[in-house]
Amino acid sequence: MKDVLDELAAARRTMGTATLPAGDAYTVELRRCYDAPVDEVWNAITDPERLGRWLRPVTGNLRLGGSFELDGGEHGEILHCDPPRRLRVSWLFGPEADEWPGTSEVEVLLTPSPAGGTEFELVHAAAVGEPMFPTYGPGSGGVGWDLHLLTLARFLADGEVLDHEGLEESPEGREFIRRSAAAWGHAHLAAGGEPEQVAAAVTATTEFYAPSTSSHAEKESTT
């Protein structure tokens, strides 16, 4: 448990603002250091075989101007690629999202750290007014990215490939999710969120990613 929670504490989380082709946007931002050189981290986030081992299997024309699709339904276009420092992609989910291009982008920036590792920064910008935010706040995407950066840390350390579903259903994974949702609540408050709205968003996010025992049992009984 301690190593999982140490990974959660390794990241700094903030909310900010940005401008997308579709208009004003809010951002969820994660910054942390990985004990691996920049080239190694870049390869892990751009090589299709390695990307599929910690994020999700990916297909597509993986070059500047090309498109990609993850097996979870996330898809988009490669908007900027400056090896080994900067990658920016559009980030849509589900076929309906294609009707609203320019509403979501993910950018990753890599910088060598003095100790020989890599300073990793991920910024996910989503258009103001997107439907998930009023209910879940920044945790709607932030908790998912926390989980993915945990699996990236394990992969970079020893090549371990984590079972995402198994992690999320394990006691340590559920505790990680609860603390991640709370951490995004703190970031939301720091960005000016109303306390009651933030508290409700943290509760909703936690229940979405780590449903209570009764909710989980009810879901299982209907599948």
From TrEMBL:
Q: Which Gene3D superfamilies match?
A: 3.30.530.20
Q: Where is the Activator of Hsp90 ATPase homologue 1/2-like C-terminal domain?
A: 35-153
Q: Which InterPro entries match?
A: ASHA1/2-like_C, START-like_dom_sf
Which Pfam families does this entry report, sorted A to Z? Answer: AHSA1
Q: Which domain of life is it from?
A: Bacteria
> Which SUPFAM superfamilies does the record match to this protein?
Bet v1-like (SSF55961)
Q: Which family does it belong to?
A: Belongs to the AHA1 family.
Q: What is this protein called?
A: SRPBCC family protein
